[in-house]
Each structure stands twice: as C-alpha cells, then as structure tokens.
Amino acid sequence: MSIDVSQVEILLEDKDMVLNPGQTLSGGFRLNSILAVPVKRAEVSVLWYTMGKGDTDEGVIFCQTYAEDGELDAQTAFPFSVVLPGEPWSYDGKIVKIRWAVRVRIYPKEGPDVAAEQNFRLWPAHRKQGQET
133 in a domain, yes or no? Predict the structure, then answer.
C-alpha cells in the first residue's frame, strides 16, 4: 500500500505557531489510513533551514525514530517533545529567510518515501514580529 503526503497529520499542542526560545514544543504525528501500513521506520525531526541566495544551511535540533519494522495506522499517535534553542530566530529577509519546521518522514516497506512538514516561528516574546536587531 502506498502512502500519500496528505495522509500524514502533524499535531502541535501550541496552536499559536510562534514559539519562544527555551519553550517546549510538544506534539505528535499520525497516519490517517484505514489500513495499517507496514514501514521500515518513521522519523520526526525539528529543524531550521535557510532559503534564498547562496547555499542552504540546515540544523536539526531533534530527531526520533518510531515504528522500526512496524506498522502505522490511524489509531496510533506518535508523540514528541523538545525544548527549543535560543537561536536562530525565524527571519524573513529579502535575500535570505530562516524557517523552522517539524518534519515527518515515513519509509514504507513498499512504495516511495513520504515527507510532510509543519512550519512554525521561533521568536522571543520581548521582540515584536519583524523587528530587526
């Protein structure tokens, strides 16, 4: 059975999507599928990456593997929790942007790998959105 990216649901406890450095990001993911899907493994990671001119930089601050040689189904949610670092802050510049995301990758036993992503912003509460240093 093949998995479609629309079947991967990322669930974040903080619905605001703007988080502070040092705050705990908690959530989980699940596969919305009627039938259980055999997988090699599933991974959830929390990371930042750059977009724009120049080389892409990336920093993974959390990665956890689930369901190794197991199954995913709609009845099982896989939780995670991580304390966010002090930086880099989210940034929307003209030349470069810094994005934060929760990324779920599923490696099924049959068919192509699937990746889903949920973005959020890392921004200190004492600073206004868009305020530059």
Answer: no
Total domains present in the chain: 1
Query: E strands of the chain, at which residues?
Result: 8-12, 18-19, 24-31, 37-52, 58-66, 70-72, 78-83, 91-92, 96-108, 114-122
Q: Would you say the pTM of this structure is higher than 0.85?
A: yes
Q: How would you write the pLDDT of the chain (133 residues) with one tens digit per residue? A: 678 889 999 999 987 789 999 999 999 999 988 889 999 999 999 999 999 988 899 999 999 999 999 999 888 899 999 999 999 999 999 999 999 999 999 999 999 999 999 999 999 986 665 555 4
Residue 28, domain CATH: 2.60.40.640
